[in-house]
Amino acid sequence: DRADGYHEIKSIMQSIGLSDELTFEILKRKNNHRSENKNGIYITCNNEDIPLDEKNLVHKAAALILDNYNLRDKYSIRINIEKHIPVCAGLAGGSTNAAATLVALDKLFNLNIKVTDITNLASEVGSDVPFCLKGGTTLAEGRGEKLSELPHLPFYWIILATNGGKFLSREVYGKFDLIGVEKKSIHKELVNNIMEKEFSDFFGKLRNDLEDVVVIEDKEILVVKEKASELGAIAAQMTGSGPTVFALCDDLKTALDVYEGLKPLSSRVFLSHTKPNSLTVYS
């Protein structure tokens, strides 16, 4: 635990193919006149669980661009978010969308922001946002903003299963402070396994220390993990602050078996794959 309320973490992060889709429109303000929405940021979304105001990390990212580059009085921004990534499910959907917002607005306004500057802005928005700018396979430390790029994992199929439960990261970390057990960090061994391409050792050692806290409220996590392993997944773990479980498979047939096998146990199941980057920009 740190003075700023964040937690020190050591986490290996991996970008995958499941994504939301964001559309941006830049509008010039007429005669410098601020419209009825004084902040000039308009967000729409197909998921009613998503806040459309300052609570949304996309809003925070857009506001940082407008304010840091003196664009607030000249422009308004319309952003539509088409959600596919489950919400509050440990999948960094909000962080990824914030990263996409920084990159898209940099391009749309022709700002040519330096990598260090855009990374600092990302860090201001949220702990996972710097990783989401880049993606790939990365060791995240500090509160998530200290990133060490690792060799990309090879292509694996990934099945994600969630029962629709929503767990806020800060609440999960808060419970971990109360009842969690801090275990010896194995991040050095995991990094070494990736460097040496010892993937079976790597997958055999994977663990998520937050899981012990989340399974108190959501025991299905253990059932889903066990079922995925039974069906041939090479690894199955809770992702992030939960409650989503990811299962890795190295061939499509096994991946489809796991995908179908987890459907009766979960409200939503996705078939995805590892990816060497996290954002794609279409103009």
Order of helix and strand elements from N to C terminus: EEEHEHHHEEEHHHHHEEHE
The CATH C-level class name of the largest domain: Alpha Beta
Specify the number of helices.
Answer: 10
Q: How many runs of DSSP E, i.e. beta strands?
A: 10
Largest sheet: 4 strands, antiparallel
Estimate the helix proportion, in percent.
25-40%
CATH topology of the largest domain: Alpha-Beta Plaits
Strand content: 15-25%
Structurally, the number of domains stands at: 2
Enzyme class: transferase
GO molecular function, one term: 4-(cytidine 5'-diphospho)-2-C-methyl-D-erythritol kinase activity
Protein name: 4-(cytidine 5'-diphospho)-2-C-methyl-D-erythritol kinase
Domain GHMP kinase N-terminal: 56-136
Overview of the structural elements:
- The structure is a single chain.
- This protein is of the alpha+beta class and 283 residues long.
- The protein folds into two domains: 21-83 and 93-127, Ribosomal Protein S5, domain 2, CATH 3.30.230; 157-273, Alpha-Beta Plaits.
- 35% of the residues lie in helices and 19% in strands.
- It is built from ten helices and ten strands.
- It has helices spanning 57-68, 93-108, 115-125, 129-134, 169-179, 187-195, 199-205, 211-214, 220-230, 252-262, and strands at 11-14, 21-28, 41-45, 75-82, 137-141, 146-149, 157-162, 235-238, 245-249, 268-273.
- The chain has a four-stranded antiparallel beta sheet with strand order 8-9-7-10, with helices on one face.
- Helix 1 links the parallel strand 3 and strand 4.
- The radius of gyration is 20 Å and the shape is globular.
- The mean pLDDT is 92.
